[in-house]
Amino acid sequence: MAEQRKRTRRGRISSREAMHELRSRPPEYDPCPPGQVGGQYRPLSDDQVQDIYDTALRILSELGMGESPDVLTQQAIKCGAEVNELGRLCFPRAMVEDIVDGAAKQFVFHGRDSSYDFELGGDRVYFGTGGAAVQTLDMKTGLYRPSTLKDLYDFTRLIDTLDNVSWFTRCCIATDVPDNFDLDINTVYALLRGTTKPTGTSFTLGSHVDPIIDMFDWVLGGEGKFQERPFCKAHISPVISPLRYGADAVEVALACMNRGVPINNIVAAQSGATSPATIAGMLASTLAETLAALIMINIFKPGYPMIFSNWPLVIDLRTGAFAGGGGEVSLLNAGSALLTNWLGLPSGVASSMADSKAVDAQMGMEKALSALATGLSGANMVYESSGMMASLLGASFEAFLIDDEMLSHVYRMIRGIEVNEETLGFEAIREAITGEGHFLGGTHTMNAMQKEYFYPKLSDREEPKTWGDLGAKDMWQRANEKATEILANHHPQYLDPAVDKKIRDNFNILL
């Protein structure tokens, strides 16, 4: 008996040592990479999807769109649209369905570094950023202040190190750049300098598109190079809810199509304010509006790469304040993804727009709830998923790091459970009960340790005494230290000096 205990003890010590040794190595296998296949969460039945879709088509055919610019109205009429007695541009059901059938179903979203390329369409899920925060949570004071161009650049080089941020759309507005043209130019310059991942930006006016795409051509090595590998998409909101077109956004969209810029057409209505307050009514109304955006693109260039971004947002009907977190916005955006995927179009939704101002429990609750719902729904591109705080008014460096870790957990849940002869582990069970009496240190366990489990770097899993001995730091403090370290050391040089000089000679670069 003593000898058996001795053998068991030796086995346990060996097992612990083996596990510690394995944990100390760089991971050989990422158990939860981007691009997992979603679609497990279906908040709508097939009949409900059909009812919402039918209502959306009825809205477009009977109520139509107001304030359509002449260029859009004339082209739409050539393609089968009609103007009703109220002067609104209406789209017959057959016209809408033909456009959906001919619309882009899949396309590659490029990075300047091809290793970051990924394909949009189907049910593969990628998380990235969005937003236009006008405030930044200061890393030293813990209070909000106006966002600057330097903040935008710092956010860009921070996300350049984060595995789960698959693309970067500027998360904040450089409020220290008052001129609109300088703002658009300096925004994309910060993106070019800070990352080679796929990016996204916005254009204040259509006339700003050509100079910026010229800059992209310079970076890629010559005229027309951007159109060969379009690494930056345009964020456009061509529909003003309820059911009106925005003339400036239509102009921007046409200018982008002339230069081959992929378009993210965003409809961001608010429940009970610019769309119906009921969940089903809002989904029907916003689906109609996003279909109107799809029509706008495809009547000029059928099959043009467009992300169908229906972002139904919520307001607190007691106060009128925007509510970026909670069950309703999570449900709405998951439902939106389901509808878009049902149509077979590349889907974009929003999540993780915490109402919390601090990096606290409220933030974690709100972000994880919506990221999980939208991820499991199968949304292709989940925007706002990193860094956004204060109901989209603020962005946080610490939140970016915490969200990146949170998204690994979400991807792990989307990945699900693999069931096969190896994972069922019958032989491992036999070996344990006829041998050491446990699974510690066994080959089956060691393999599973790498392939089945994600090991967080920021979350604390120590016992209370050890946590106290290490300073009793909370997640905010740990993320602050890590973000400070990254920003102190990660200074990528992604622009050729000669190209950088050419950009600075032609534009008022302020960074």
Q: Could you walk me through the main structural features you see in this protein, from its secondary elements to its overall organization?
A:
This protein is an alpha/beta fold. The chain has a domain at 100-415: Trimethylamine methyltransferase-like (TIM Barrel, Alpha-Beta Barrel). It is 47% helix and 13% strand. The protein contains 19 helices and 21 strands. It has helices at residues 2-24, 46-63, 70-78, 93-102, 149-159, 180-194, 209-220, 225-228, 247-258, 279-298, 327-343, 361-377, 397-415, 421-424, 426-434, 443-451, 464-469, 475-489, 497-506; strands at residues 36-37, 82-83, 89-90, 107-109, 118-120, 124-127, 135-137, 144-146, 168-169, 199-201, 232-236, 239-240, 244-245, 263-267, 306-310, 314-316, 321-323, 347-350, 381-383, 388-389, 394-396. The strands form six sheets. Strands 1-6-19-18-15-14-11-10-9 form a nine-stranded mixed β-sheet. A four-stranded mixed β-sheet has the order 8-7-21-20. A two-stranded antiparallel sheet has the order 2-3. α12 crosses α13. It starts with a helix and ends in a 5-residue tail after the last helix.
